[in-house]
Amino acid sequence: MSETAKKNVYFFGDGKADGHGKMKELLGGKGAGLCDMVLLGIPVPPGFVISTEVCRFHVENAGYPPGLRDEVAAAIAAIERSMGMRFGDAANPLLLSVRSGARVSMPGMMDTVLNLGLNDTTVEGLAARTGDERFAWDSYRRFVQMYGDVVLGLKPESKEERDPFEVIIEAKKERRHVYLDTELTARDLRELVAEFKAEIARRKGRAFPEDVHEQLWGAVAAVFSSWDNPRAVTYRRMYDIPSSWGTAVTVQAMVFGNMGDDSATGVAFTRDPSTGERRFFGEFLVNAQGEDVVAGIRTPQSVTRAGRKEGPAGDLPSLEEVMPGPFAELTAVYQNLEKTYRDMQDIEFTIQKGRLWMLQTRTGKRTARAMVRIAVEMVREGLISTEEAILRMDPAKLDELLHPALDPKAHRNVIARGLPASPGAAVGKVVFHADEAEELAGKGELVILVRVETSPEDIHGMKAAQGILTARGGMTSHAAVVARGMGKCCVSGAGAVHVDYKARSMTIDGRSFAEGEWISLNGSTGEVYAGRIQTKDAELSGDFGKLMGWADTHRRLQVWQDDGLMIGEQGPEPVHALLHQAQFLARQVTPHQVTHLGLEGLGLVDNRRRQPRQEEEERHRRAALGARPPGGTSDPRT
After folding, report:
1. Measured between alpha carbons, how far apart are the two ends of the chain, in Å?
2. What is the mean pLDDT of each run of 10 residues along the chain (638 residues)?
3. Which residues contact 324 (CB under 8 A, 6 or more apart)?
4. Distance between CA 78 and CA 579 in Å, rounded?
5. What is the model's pTM?
């Protein structure tokens, strides 16, 4: 690249990084976080980020800026040197992941491709190098399935149709008389690869690409294009994210959680995202890859021994018990990250043959109750100031605290139990498809979306529904994470629920519920009830009162009642009015008036306008990382 050429690719790995955490606009949240973790000395597989500017160029010009391919080639060479492997090499192949990464978290809305670089030749080399034929063919099966979906577009053609790849897998398991994917043999997986490729050729009219460079650029294009897929557009509209931002693409050396019983993958939060409790909270799967945890296809295990009794697989040991060494490393990492960012972090990790690798850190989505509790407790812990705590409040989420709860005195007929994935109550008519949920909600109907497991394509239905119920998935599944971010009640992993999409019904212990029948959910206990249960007004916690007290000390705007008393002087009830009236006022004024009137002190300023908080957080982050020039590559350990 010439000295005048624009830099589009940013490398990270081996203790050095071309970027850092302040570069989210250019590198996306994922890329910026990976660079920061490298500079903190945290184990991260080497990789590179293609910037958001390239995304905008690609959308506008249907191509790439000059010199990009040369920059990518140089970055791949750097990964090869770091890993001691070669991309496309028959004997020692380097495999890559290709992931999206906008500047703000958009969980599951854009696309990912894993195990890229496998073909009919390199899979044999991977099998020989690892001495594990089953692992190699399992990785290849996953790659063909994911690439066929994301890049080649082999998807269900109707909402009643199942994923065509999953149909083939289920047929294979049925013929082999096995229940789990992990019970399939290397021969079974080899046959699945051939069957997947045949289905792609039959339905898409093209052969699966064998050239690894064609695979790479196909994946990069698909991830950039996913910025404008329907679910991403819907999500951006819901959360007021500008389309002009674009997404970065992170390309990274693969590490494998599916190499046997000493390998695993997981998702965790540095605090409980539902309640805000200060405890390490997460789930993992042995001998699996990351999408297995998020998709909810297999029941995950708890990361901690303490969380094991609450998890969906309470009879299975925790990560703390089965892999104490990697767990201890993971504990040190999460504590380091929360101290650095001074906020709850959502992290992803893989353990390959007993070695821990970190794949992501980002600010974790949380419920309104957790948002308040985390902010208040972090003030007590000395991590943030009272003013920062107030500025972290999202007024739209604060309104969730005022939503009704199920009346504890009402009669309840429990029909199923799952995981309390997102707290609150939901009462509505059963629907099984996102489109119907959106349509009926638009007519004023109360609905509960019931799915085997949700996918990003369900985002509009999840938004419209009062609550979400899934038969599969854990506390870190797609349904759970997205519902918490929306403030929706969610019960996940209710194994007694059997969904029949074509019949538009669900069966629980022999009892059938057709579309349109009423059910109720308790997202705080994970219970599912038949019928329509009465609700009662919510009760605010002491943390909320504490926060409002801090807001009162910082405010410059006062809201008065007709009787001459200022709102908040008559006890807890006027606090509701204070919140509602302040939110109303904030919606009526311009950004300039928000500042002039002092509404910032009530937490009513859009995140994108919170420059003082951003500057304060950056000062703390840089102190943790060690002084370095912007874009520098100094190692904070030296």
Report:
1. 29
2. 73 95 94 96 97 94 93 98 97 96 87 95 96 94 96 86 90 92 93 97 96 98 92 87 94 93 94 94 89 72 87 78 96 96 96 96 90 96 94 80 79 91 92 95 96 91 95 88 89 92 92 96 91 82 85 69 50 45 42 39 40 51 49 36
3. none
4. 53
5. 0.77
